[in-house]
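Record type: monomer structure entry
Structure origin: computed from sequence
Chain ID: A
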Amino acid sequence: MLFLKSFFFILVFSIIPLNDLLSFKKKNFYSTKYNEVNIRIGPGINHLKLYKILIKGYPLEIKEEYENWYKVTDYKKRVGWVSKSQLSNISYGILTSDSQKLYKFPNISSKQLAVVKSEYILKVIKCKDEWCKVEDKKVKGWILKKYLWGFVND
């Protein structure tokens, strides 16, 4: 029995990064506030630009903070630094799977309102159980939560 406990302990600590175990923090997400946001190699405008995000509402996970800068990662696991002034706490999610249906109610038997394509960004209004109510400029409806990335998943 002691062997099994030791094996489990080693297994857990080899799978979960130590920082995650020690912090027990919820994931912290922000979204881009503007249609053009620079992601840099380091904190500060003197650092080279890695890439630009060209859409408002693009979700980013905060990994670290330094003065007025956040070290962020996106759903593709790209890492860089962005100025805090370029981010908003409005909740957005990005579709990480192939196309998915948007429903009138949180039920796959309800009316289908639209088809959402991969990498499409939707504003997250609220979530419950397995579903999130989302919207964009033209439509509002429900989508399965497991297909979205970039918001605090209560």
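Annotation 1: Residues 2-15 form the longest helix (14 residues).
Annotation 2: Helices lie at 2-15, 18-23.
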